[in-house]
Amino acid sequence: MSATEAMNTNAAAAPESTPQVGRVPGVRIVGTGSALPSRTVTNDDLAQIVDTSDEWISTRTGIRSRRYCDREQGESELTLARDAARRALEASGHTADEVGICLVASFTPAAATPSTACLLQRELGLAEDTLCLDVNAACAGFVYALYVAASLLEHTPQPLALVVGAEELSRVMDFSDRSTCVLFGDGAGAAVLERAADAPALTATWGSRGNDEALFAPGVGSVDEAGEPRPSYLTMDGRAVFRFATEVLPKCTSEVLQAAGVDASDVDRFVFHQANKRIVDVAVRKLGLDPARCAGNIDHTGNTSAASVPILLDELVRTGALVTPARVVMAGFGAGLTWASCLVEVASS
Ligand code: COA
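A: This is the predicted complex of the input protein with coenzyme A.
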């Protein structure tokens, strides 16, 4: 057998890679909240700035409008995070002093340090022994943070974790690039996660694939390998990201169902990251899901990255589209590249 034949034989025999699975017993979501900034920007508004149209944007993405922070009104990623978190706490019926963990998923925090989570400690009056940190897994960030918080809850004295997704993407967008500036919006969503002996397990799967070409957003003084400054705004290879998203979204969704031993028909709602309605449509088709249980809200939010999953979850709860207690699958994917899914119970307070 030649070396090449041997390699091919080995490749064919290689086992399918098994995803890592996380399972945290006894946790559930007991409150949700969200906050969208005041400024609504329609597709027609953007057509005044770049060569685009409502028809192109809505048919290619499902987006009709998005919200941007109004800095003159004092709106920012932090104020959105604070408002969403307050609403989630209020909905949960719990108080700030019961929170032991505060995680904020974001790739557009106002500062590298202090973290938004740390500033929330002050804004919400959380106890000083609250474990506060930001999580950067871009659009998969909220689902990552939910799993991290659930895992930490097993070991903290306080029974509650506050998990927030908050973004101010309008700060990193290039408003001369029609292929990116029409896609994103600002917003925040939050969930209160509770440890309770009678709660079911939270099951999660995740993945990452280092790639700074498909999707890139600047950090403080970002430079490339030659030491040259990198663009101060978000850049993206839209087609590459579309291919990646339609690969990983159905994959991580079916993996989490399999890991939990749950049939898709027993899930009340699928809350998918809202990047593009066409991406969700492809995943729904590949998975053979009922589209009514996967409906999104991208038409009025655009892609709010780490905030999109908790904003959609909160809208479903507040409009009564999700009747609690409910079994919910959430999945996110995005820059990094990263992806993650989880199955969790969402209960009323
Ligand atoms: N308005 C009008 N035309 C536009 C446009 C806009 N806003 N943006 C791009 N175009 C043009 C392109 O220049 C191109 O023109 P050409 O054919 O003359 O070169 C044409 O539309 C098609 O571009 P293409 O990039 O192939 O479009 P698409 O169908 O792939 O849709 C995206 C573009 C960005 C909507 C799509 O690729 C996408 O959603 N990708 C994933 C992005 C994403 O979700 N990112 C975040 C992940 S968390």
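The longest strand covers residues 336-346. Confidence is low (pLDDT under 50) at residues 1-15.
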